[in-house]
Amino acid sequence: MAAPTQNGNGVQHSSGAAPSRVTLHLGHLPSKKDIKAPWPRTPTRVDPNNPPWPAYRGYHEYSFAHATMQSRLPTILGKAIEDATRTLNSQSSEERVVDLVQCIDRMGDLMIDLSGNAKLRPIIDDDEADVALWNKEIAKYFQGKDFMNAPWLFAEAYKYRRLHEAFSISKFWRDYDVFYRQKCDTFSRSSDAVFELSLRFAEPFKINESLSPKEKLEAERLMFLELTQVCLWGNSTDLSLLINMTEDQIKSLQSTGGDSLAATEKNILGNDMHRLWDRVRQLREKTGGRIDFVLDNAGFELYCDCVYADFLIQSGLANQIRFHGKRYPWFVSDVTKKDWEWLLNTMVYGQLFPKASDAERESLRRLGLRWKQYEKEGKWVYEQHPFWCTGYTFWDLHSEAPDLFLHLSRSDLVIFKGDLNHRKLTYDCAAPASTQFEDAIGPMASSAGAPVIASLRTIKSDVVVGLGPQGDEISDELTKNEPGWKISGKYAVVLLSEGRPGEPVRFA
């Protein structure tokens, strides 16, 4: 065997053999430092797979993302399969039965992919307006990603889009809602809170004429603040979280009495309600304006949203309300056009509450009739845009749906309801709790033409921002004393971004 030789760098190797492993001696260099990455990322480095701060992903066992991807979503999908099977068993037409069996089979395939942590495939072209947006995002940012290592927000939205696809490529069941029974049933079990509000607001809102102008304004301010809380805490009944909740537990969450609201205000950790009142009051001084609601849950939360919107119209604080819902079933309980129509019609014509008194039924009917009249007069408008059911966050709204961004920019105030909308506003990432709301929502605050935005959200997931300069300390203290505080729904935020008025930029 040939004797070892030495090359010019002092590394020995046997003649004719591959060099052995090279070991570098770095004794004269500075010691390694723990370098912390700068956050948030610069705008050019932000994309759906790289949020401004680190994304929550399903494999993060410390996060609610892990519980959702591992347990909640398979449970929700299992209940959806049960619902479709229940419908199947009531069908008689062979053609419709066979078609629905194929839908259920596709749901079974989704369950296999979800439980087996499969890679995210493109969406089948089902003639929905969002297919191109979905597949562009998957191709550009999520090639090779699976349910657990893609950002939780995208993976969860993708699961619901695949669930819609199971029906949208069918012949007879394209518009079938596997969550519809749950949504109707939960509202039917909300009678105490429903009549608490209907008995108060069936008659048109009036202020005592004997009050001075200053006293009248104060009465309106107090009513506004109380109804803002009703609208906020109505978000408590989120079906994707309350899978097995009892009727008594639902009633407790939905309590809307004055004493209850006074007690819960201390749990609004980021509270811009008074700034919000100042903003809305200015609308009336400018002869009224348009307010948009980007809706969250159907049923009781939508009912609370409508009570709030009713007051805004009657008091002249707004002259038009636009409600933005989803084009198809989404995140279990999100509002669709069918849910919107069902609520108003069941209030006027329904027999949903057999134990209700005549006075209670009549109060609900009057409320429903007034809301239907608003629709006829164009004071209330229900809308749905394909972008709301994509995997994109609202940071991309101005670039991926410029028509919708322009439409919202013409509103005097856009109220985003609920946890999912808040996650999409803030990119659903691990931002410090002290992060200013305007920074967390990025282009929705900084782009030219960005509307004034309010986020009304009970906290049910990991992302928390807008708690002020002491926000990090508040968050740490709550985590120490109440480990599950971020998903309990006990705490909330009402956050306001003042927007950037002016002519919006024209996006290419």
Automatic annotation (TrEMBL):
Gene Ontology biological process terms from the UniProt entry: DNA damage response; intracellular phosphate ion homeostasis
Source organism, top-level taxon: Eukaryota
Domain Damage-control phosphatase ARMT1-like metal-binding: 68-471
Enzyme superclass (EC): hydrolase
Cofactor: Mn(2+); Ni(2+)
Reaction(s) the record says it catalyses: beta-D-fructose 1-phosphate + H2O = D-fructose + phosphate; beta-D-fructose 6-phosphate = dihydroxyacetone + D-glyceraldehyde 3-phosphate
Entry comment, domain topic: Subfamily III proteins have a conserved RTxK motif about 40-50 residues from the C-terminus; the threonine may be replaced by serine or cysteine.
Name this polypeptide is given: Sugar phosphate phosphatase
Organism, as annotated: Psilocybe cubensis (Psychedelic mushroom)
Lineage of source species: Eukaryota, Fungi, Dikarya, Basidiomycota, Agaricomycotina
